[in-house]
């Protein structure tokens, strides 16, 4: 075990001034946003510097250096594929002698939690140069470093390809369910204003001064989870004040809520009796049927459709955070089929969404297992828990692959 300073020079980065002479040149300038969360080559960066800009505030390290993100987040690792500058959110490890940077990159990736534990700060955690330089790593002979790095290159590539394929499968399942839903909703071309189908009521204007230690739950955007309304992140309101000022906003079983912000995650349903009687926060919109023959599951299907999304995108307002409210919803046009047809559409859409949800759950579980496998494999390899020359079945017998 050796501290990194025995193997690498630790170099700090920086950010030049906004002077145009500093920016847009041929020098790549890495920030934590240029890392992808696992050891990889950094070949291009979102922004570049001129040589003048790099000399004025940053540093340029050679190809084959390790970059470590040391704030927001700590512990992302990249290998420079060319001479590169970087900002103060990173530190560079430039080899002082003969090392295989891939081996140490894998080791630091596997020990991200240990790096994060070394972070200090009150506003945000940051890994200092001294802490990084003092961080102790396993340092076997160079030949062993190369064997382990070669093994991990091959094995992690296989795992990463599986992760990519599972992600592709999940995306295809979501696209298919969306297509089925859109086809079911779009079969009816006679459109009416959405206000003829549902009534809209936005949550009241509630301030932090209205909060109460206990009482009526106040549903926040964080409470809209996976199509359900929950008490996650809720504050509380004085029951007497609610009855006096906001009783008409109390939620009922079966109410639908959507967020009017740009982070809208679709429609959520009040299904939990514990949520009944609570009040939605400003920006959350309550939807209730405007007529007795309206099937709210059909309304849900329409609100998840591409037709609704396209119309809302055209109606949203706001320069920085786009949002919409009841006035915008009233301008949306929706098909209004017969009650029997509403039920058929709702059933078809529900089956498609259930299929996609199930596929997503299964693929997420498999991806989580693959990430665990990747982490365990790297940890075991870099710490010498197995012989990498035989672990994969390679080179067991000359000329034979098992």
UniProtKB/TrEMBL annotation:
What InterPro entries does UniProt report for this protein, alphabetically? Restrct_endonuc_typeI_TRD, Restrct_endonuc_typeI_TRD_sf, Type-I_RS_S_subunit
Q: What class of enzyme is it?
A: hydrolase
Q: Name one Pfam family in it.
A: Methylase_S
EC number of the protein = 3.1.21.-
According to the UniProt entry, its GO molecular function terms are:
endonuclease activity; hydrolase activity
Q: Which residues form the Type I restriction modification DNA specificity domain?
A: 7-157
Q: Which UniProt keywords apply?
A: DNA-binding, Endonuclease, Hydrolase, Nuclease, Restriction system
Q: Which family does it belong to?
A: Belongs to the type-I restriction system S methylase family.
Q: What is this protein called?
A: Restriction endonuclease subunit S
Please report the organism this UniProt entry assigns to the protein: Streptomyces bobili
């Amino acid at each position: 075990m050796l501290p990194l300073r025995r193997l690498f020079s630790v170099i700090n980065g920086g950010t030049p001034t906004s002077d145009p002479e500093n920016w847009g040149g041929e020098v790549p300038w890495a920030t934590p946003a240029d890392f992808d969360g696992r050891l990889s080559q950094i070949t291009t960066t979102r922004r570049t510097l001129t040589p003048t800009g790099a000399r004025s505030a940053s540093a340029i390290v050679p190809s084959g250096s390790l970059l470590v993100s040391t704030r927001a987040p700590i512990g992302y690792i990249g290998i420079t594929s060319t001479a590169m500058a970087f900002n103060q959110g990173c530190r560079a490890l430039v080899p002082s002698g003969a090392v295989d940077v891939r081996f140490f990159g894998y080791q630091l990736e596997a020990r991200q939690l240990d790096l994060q534990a070394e972070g200090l700060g009150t506003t945000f955690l940051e890994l200092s140069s001294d802490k990084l330089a003092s961080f102790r790593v396993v340092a076997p002979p160079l030949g062993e470093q190369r064997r382990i790095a070669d093994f991990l290159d091959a094995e992690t590539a296989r795992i990463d390809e599986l992760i990519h394929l599972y992600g592709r499968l999940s995306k295809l399942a979501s696209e298919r369910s969306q297509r089925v839903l859109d086809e079911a909703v779009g079969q009816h071309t006679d459109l009416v204003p959405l206000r003829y189908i549902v009534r809209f009521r936005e949550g009241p204007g509630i301030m932090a001064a209205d909060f109460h230690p206990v009482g009526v739950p106040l549903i926040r955007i964080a409470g809209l989870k996976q199509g359900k309304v929950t008490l996650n992140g809720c504050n509380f309101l004085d029951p007497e004040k609610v009855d006096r000022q906001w009783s008409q906003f109390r939620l009922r079983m079966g109410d639908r809520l959507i967020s009017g912000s740009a982070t809208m995650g679709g429609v959520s349903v009040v299904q939990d009796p514990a949520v009944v009687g609570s009040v939605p926060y400003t920006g959350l919109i309550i939807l209730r049927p405007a007529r007795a023959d309206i099937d709210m599951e059909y309304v849900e299907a329409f609100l998840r459709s591409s037709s609704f999304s396209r119309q809302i995108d055209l109606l949203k307002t706001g320069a920085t955070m786009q949002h919409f409210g009841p006035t915008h919803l009233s301008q949306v046009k929706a098909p209004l089929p017969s009650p029997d047809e509403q039920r058929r559409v709702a059933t078809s859409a529900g089956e498609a969404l259930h299929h996609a949800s199930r596929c997503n759950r299964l693929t997420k579980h498999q991806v989580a297992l693959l990430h665990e496998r990747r982490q365990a494999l790297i940890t075991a390899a870099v710490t010498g828990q197995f012989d990498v020359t035989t672990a994969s079945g390679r080179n067991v017998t000359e000329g034979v692959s098992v």
